[in-house]
Write a structure and sequence with these properties.
This protein has nine helices and seven strands. The protein is an alpha+beta fold and 263 residues long. Strands 1, 2, 3, 4, 5, 6 and 7 form a seven-stranded antiparallel β-sheet that branches. Helix 1 packs across helix 3.
Length: 263
């Protein structure tokens, strides 16, 4: 379940079961159901409450039974329902961010634990962990340079002319330029882990890098790549271009027929 759904349930569940005044348990037992829609309403509220109990178990601040104020949860829901909050919007934003950060930290810990065996295997073979993206919570790419290039480091906005082999950790190849012309890749359009590794290299570099699923295709199945896969790339960076125009001129030199077709 997505964070937004969890947060909404955490702040809004069970509110349809009771009013906001008095003891919550007492109020929940004294509901008058005089009309058919009252029973429907009660059932709806009861289902919200049940779902909320399940989701509250995922709140990453400790035991929800002891740390969460259920009456405050109900009042918060009512305030949203009637558009009548006594808490400022800025305060609510700070609280929501705290929940978001806590969930992200929890997901980071899970991701790191899942990637740890793979990381240890490759680090033992001389791979080094790269710096994390400042905005990303999770394990980093592992990089091993087999041949150093020259010049400035590749930038996120650059385009590269590169030979590569993409494979799974069991050495199954899922994509390759072997026997073909090198590929021209615009880095900012690729999975984050590939871009992250490439920006640590220079033109002429040869390297291998290991991308955890969180910086790759995550929980998506992409062609022959199973969901939640760690992927490995061997790359040989032939050329680096700093603009679309540079890349296009290079392509037209390689393939003059393309230039003729554009006249």
């Amino acid at each position: 379940m997505k964070l937004t759904k969890i947060a909404a349930l955490a702040f809004g569940c069970a509110a349809l079961m009771a009013s906001c005044s008095g003891d919550i348990k007492t109020v929940s037992k004294n509901v008058k159901l005089s009309k058919g829609m009252d029973t429907v309403s009660y059932s709806l509220g009861f289902n919200f409450g049940n779902n909320c109990k399940l989701q509250m178990e995922q709140i990453p601040f400790g035991d929800p039974e002891t740390i969460l104020n259920k009456e405050a949860i109900i009042k918060g829901f009512a305030a949203a329902l009637y558009n009548d909050s006594t808490i400022s919007e800025d305060t609510l934003k700070v609280a929501t961010k705290r929940i978001s950060d806590a969930f992200m930290k929890k997901e980071q810990e899970k991701a790191c634990a899942a990637f740890e065996p793979t990381a240890k295997k490759y680090e033992a073979e001389g791979f080094k962990s790269l710096e994390k993206f400042p905005e990303y919570y999770g394990p980093s790419v592992l990089l091993k340079v087999t041949e150093a290039g020259k010049g400035d480091s590749i930038k996120y906005t650059d385009i590269v002319y590169v030979d590569y082999v993409g494979k799974l950790t069991n050495d199954t190849i899922f994509d390759s330029t072997t026997g073909k012309e090198p590929a021209i890749l615009q880095l900012q359009s690729l999975v984050p882990g590939f871009t992250q590794a490439m920006t640590k290299l220079t033109e002429g570099s040869k390297a291998t890098f290991v991308i955890p699923s969180e910086l790759g295709y995550q929980n998506r199945e992409v062609g022959p790549i199973p969901a939640n896969s760690t992927i490995v790339f061997d790359v040989d960076i032939k050329k680096v271009f700093h603009s679309q125009e540079e890349a296009m001129k290079f392509i037209q030199k390689l393939h003059p027929e393309m230039a003729k077709g554009q006249r």
